[in-house]
């Protein structure tokens, strides 16, 4: 067979894989409907383990590597669990979702908003904003139903500006979504061989690529309001030797080419985004929930330890605890806390009452579906027999 015919065959196989993936997602939605009727939990790790084991046995018979299959199916199962969780909360997708986001099309916030809408079988009606505060205002003023904001990154940590804004708004966090952020260095087509003297990027992208950038000599690094701004600047400028930090899909949108890839200081760089809305949401019991709050303890020895003891007494699982200086009050600390709990659970309501009595300030930012899907692990059949 010639190369072209072989490639046509590959394309045919890929089409069938895609159709099978779409069918699997449809069946997962039917499973969600069934679970909603029976009040069953979305996640069933025993079922996942037996499924993975069977797939590995069958796969190795077909000559496929067990490690490859596990990685592949972990992604497929994560998609299935998150699709079911989204359905449990929002039901069947209806039309479009209006979401305010930082930057124009191609910014990381826009990509995350796109992923959020896709997961809910909705089309995205995105509204570009210049600042995080504009995203908030768009939702507060009723111009959009939702706003999306990056809240923390696996490399650069919490995005304090966003926490600060959340402290002063009456909006609620109603969802979270994770985006793999693979920064690339993008230049205009034809400029691939030009020496770079200036790199533009969003401050978060610059922080996440600090190691790579620190090794470049005679290069100016300049901040832009969003990654989309940085890419647009490079795309529209005639000046050679300028580059932008951005994503692969953003680069494609602006017709830019990558001259360096995977630039984040840590592999697997991910950003967690939150979705904010005017009304709080209700997380069904079948879906694991995360509750986020900000609190300031009294400035006295052991105050934080006392707050943590309350959480332990109520058996609350702490996902995140971070302290930040309180803006305007030097040397006083504000704590960001995330707990694995449903807001309406009596366990949390009791703990909150006790915390209110012993903190100077406490604000629940929202309770929403926990989108971290910890991969189920199984021992591959050959490894088992070889052990
Ligand atoms: C589809 C189901 O829901 C979840 C997703 C699974 C999958 O995609 O195979 C398996 C178990 C559950 O964690 C199910 O329960 O069968």
Automatic annotation (TrEMBL):
Function noted in UniProt: Catalyzes the Claisen rearrangement of chorismate to prephenate and the decarboxylation/dehydration of prephenate to phenylpyruvate.
Ranges of residues in domain Chorismate mutase: 1-88
Binding sites annotated in the UniProt record for substrate: 7, 24, 35, 44, 48, 80, 84
Protein name: Bifunctional chorismate mutase/prephenate dehydratase
Reactions performed catalytically: prephenate + H(+) = 3-phenylpyruvate + CO2 + H2O; chorismate = prephenate
Domain ACT: 292-369
PROSITE patterns: ACT, CHORISMATE_MUT_2, PREPHENATE_DEHYDR_1, PREPHENATE_DEHYDR_3
EC code: 4.2.1.51, 5.4.99.5
Known pathway: Amino-acid biosynthesis; L-phenylalanine biosynthesis; phenylpyruvate from prephenate: step 1/1; Metabolic intermediate biosynthesis; prephenate biosynthesis; prephenate from chorismate: step 1/1
Lineage: Bacteria, Pseudomonadati, Pseudomonadota, Gammaproteobacteria, Alteromonadales
A GO molecular-function annotation: chorismate mutase activity
Site feature Essential for prephenate dehydratase activity, where: 271
